[in-house]
Amino acid sequence: MDQEPPQYNADGIEQLPLRQFTEKAYLDYSMYVILDRALPFIGDGLKPVQRRIVYAMSELGLSAVSKHKKSARTVGDVLGKFHPHGDSACYEAMVLMAQDFSYRYPLVDGQGNWGSQDDPKSFAAMRYTEARLAPYAQVLLSELGQGTVDWVPNFDDSLKEPAMLPARLPNVLLNGGTGIAVGMATDIPPHNLREVATACIRLIEEPKATLADICEHIQGPDFPTEAEIITPRADLKKVYESGNGSVRMRARWQKDQGAIVITALPFQVSGTRVQEQVAALMNAKKLPWIEDVRDESDHENPTRLVLLPRSNRVDIERVMLHLFATTDLERTYRINLNMIGLDGKPAVKDLRDMLVEWLEFRFETVRRRLQYKLDRVLDRLHLLDGLLIAFLNLDEVIRIIRTEDEPKQVLMARFELSERQADYILDTKLRQLARLEEMKIRDEQQALIEERDDLEKTLGSKQRMKTLVKKELAADAEKYGDERRSPIVERDAAEAMDEAELAPSEPVTVVLSQKGWVRAAKGHDINPAELSYKAGDGFCQAVRLRSNQQVIFVDSAGRSYSLAAHTLPSARGQGEPLTGRFNPPAGHSFVAVLGGDPEQWWLLASDAGYGFRVQAKDLLANKKAGKAVLTLPAGAKVLKPSIVNDAATDRLVAVTTEGRMLVIPANDLPELSRGKGNKIIGVPPKSVADRSEYVVDILAVPEGGKVKLNSGKRYLNLRGADLNAYEGERGRRGNKLPRGFQKVDSIEPDE
Fold this sequence. Notes:
The protein has 20 helices and 37 strands. The relative contact order is 0.06. The chain is of the alpha+beta class. It has a four-stranded antiparallel beta sheet, with helices on one face. The chain has a four-stranded antiparallel beta sheet with strand order 21-19-20-24, with no helix packed on it. Strands 25-22-23-28 form a four-stranded antiparallel beta sheet, with no helix packed on it. A hairpin with a 3-residue loop joins strand 22 (about 550-555) and strand 23 (about 560-565). It has five domains: about 45-165, Alpha-Beta Complex (Topoisomerase II, domain 5), CATH 3.90.199.10; about 250-330, Gyrase A, domain 2 (2-Layer Sandwich); about 365-480, Orthogonal Bundle (Topoisomerase, domain 3), CATH 1.10.268.10; about 500-595, no CATH class; about 600-615 and about 630-750, Neuraminidase, CATH 2.120.10.90.
């Protein structure tokens, strides 16, 4: 976008449009954050603050073999000389580089409290801790004074600092890094040093090696924890191809005398946090298989979380899959290989491009190191040539020095010396003019000539350069490398159990009262009619099922509702009204309850004589408003649902208030999930509407089963052969019952 030319007021002050000023200011700020704060440089893998900390510590002489010094001294040097920012941010960056649970290859060797995996922020203040560089830091510093990098002025132009460090290994991959810039971020996971070095050597030997070839060496990230990486290798390869993706880590565990012992947690996961999460699940009754959780971590076992199952019948594998899905025992880490390249621009790179670009940086660093060394050798040879001339003409040199006013100029003219050679001769001490020194000079000359020839051959040969870089990579891998810590394994996907699985499976009897109050009694041997009810209320219906199953309620409008049985109140009290859980249509009440196996078939019918077969799972409706299931003709009411065990052999027995009974095969009714159903027994619609005749009950009777008809205090038992007399076609009026049973109150199976 073209910027408007600056305007000046009468006082000569530049004036800019606010839009132009803010755009430029924000762009400058964002570029500063991206390039000078948040993103690592591909060469040394460091952000500016990290680079300055490492360099300042080296300048303070805090090598891996020196004594530790107060961290405050290091931070003070960094802030005072190179990094004019907050001391707490600088110290936190230093702490991070010292934590072996945060950095795969720590750069700082700390002494004191530097935090713990449970609480990385629990480190002591910098006035209490001491630090020095870790041995691995030599990978970044050993070639610093050898002409390998450019030096730039510090913030006040009083000192010089390295623009980058001459890394001998791709630290950007080894320690990774995270950062949030303006409009972009980076998340580079750590990797294993030996794997990365081997991949670099493969690329040097085979410049056309593909990403698949590289992935033979670099299996995946390698975090500073022994937890497992469970992302499939094919997915990891896709991440390396695009530079974006994610990786999943899962805690490692084992069985120990019936207990579950967690021995390694995912990267940056706190054991205390996991313990709190498990305890919260237990308190919420969402982890019924675990009796207790405790932390037995100590110095010998940095991670040891113990979970005690309630019994040895608990499926521990299934429980752990549930915990992986619901706690931090399994975590996903984002991967975004975004960094500042050799061109000074931020970019997301794939793994192969990263290594190729870093090798370009490494070859240039080695070339500069060798060239610097060659220049030093040539300079020394030049001085030795002049010194040898002086030894060969020692008397004349002494005479010139003693007699001439300008011995330097005379020496240069007399022996064709350069100014540096003449200065070096004049600076030579008298004690070095002994005859023995000539032999030393010639020996040194010979050694330097051999070194010069070797350096020139190496600099002039690509193959020699490759061999040298490979040898150095292999040597560093041997010196600083170690075995992979995070194994890459294939595991079953984590899966949280649903509420039904979480609840204990116990026999319960769910009791519904006439006023719509519900409760659950333990066991199947109770008589629900004998329970106490509120004044004006009484027993309506009960269903026997397991506590981890769903209970289904049907209201007088033909709508179904469902709840988990274990969530219902105990039968020790009088329960609670279902209207507190559901919102049935105004003026309607709950009239029926059923439940149990979701695959169980039920007969759902109205007293108009219509009905259908439906599976319990089709009646589930976990919402307050329920769902419409049974369509009721005018004036009709919902009948008590009846279990249909086998539609091929079960028979349906229907009785009307006029004393008519009809028996039909159960499979004469359709299988529906909702609707009015088909006519079971013929009842005039007008009679149903004015309630002069309607169906008393419809019962599904298994083959060979008996039926008990109740009429006041009288009852009639009908066996299989007796029922045959009432068989007929579906939808007929049915046959008349014997005298005394013209008014049947209810039908029930005869035990």
